[in-house]
Amino acid sequence: MSWWDDDETDEDDDLYDESTVRVRPNPKANRPRTKIRPKHDDAVIGRVLGVDRGRYRVLIDEDEPTEHPVTASRARELRRTPIVTGDRARIVGDTSGDEGTLGRIVGIEDRSSLLRRSADDTDNVERVIVANADQMLVVVAAADPPPRPRLVDRYLVAALDAGIRPLMVVTKTDLADPTEFLRNFEGIDGLRVFLSAEGAMPVDEIGTAIAGHSTVFVGHSGVGKSTLVNALVPEAKRATGHVNLVTGRGRHTSSSTVSLRYRGPAGSGWVIDTPGVRSFGLGHVDPENILRAFGDLAEIAEECPRGCTHLPDAPDCAINESSEASPARVASLQGLLETFAGRAEH
Length: 346
What we know:
six-stranded mixed β-sheet, five-stranded mixed β-barrel, 23% helix
């Protein structure tokens, strides 16, 4: 008799009927998926002071008697959302700030500004530096290391593109006269400049300018930025470095971006210290905003024909034909414009 004979299979079918098989329930597999997230109505708002290895330091109850910092992690749904110093974060969980406790960041409030940079001018991938700053203080040395006006131009372009008001401090003026360097920026409306020398740091004047504001400090390594931060916020104790006598370059001392509370005679504010950088890519910037950082040339450019590129070969360009425009300023502007023109071609 063959194995498929009906006389045997009828009885076997009863033994192996699928309806008799018990299936162990799997709640996770059977639960319908949903995109509905909890509203977190109990979340509190805090200022992100800094981040270290995936843990965020957040200030709760800012300006209240109950003000205190907490440590928080990032919620899973925010894994692709950049959370940076200066952000206003929504926190749930344990927000007591007690040792060993951990809150959770579940959302970010709308940002008033976002300062960014890229690896270079051809890189469209932006690196967020700080959120919600309303001022940028550019720190540059008159000497040791020598000032780099083109780098300062990039800072100013990034600030104006983000809607942030620029300020400038020139340090080490006892070593060199900064007059010639500062001529590069005479045309920028509203740019306030402070001069600092050994033993004569204008702490009170700078403090008055940053009181009531969130000010991000930027500068080339070795220009004295950390020294200035420590003078304004003594408890910060930011590491300071020196300039290499061979290369003329400063050593990176600030390794992370951090918000520090400033308290002075004119009131309180926020000092946002950033690591020193030797380059500042503008791959994320709208090219139309570049001219805004060159206020003197922007005024001359009003006489240019419509659609003028302001490049050296632009016909009837008022900037190229002007006898009043600073050659150094024109070269800096056109250098940036040429970079962006090349990027557009690709």
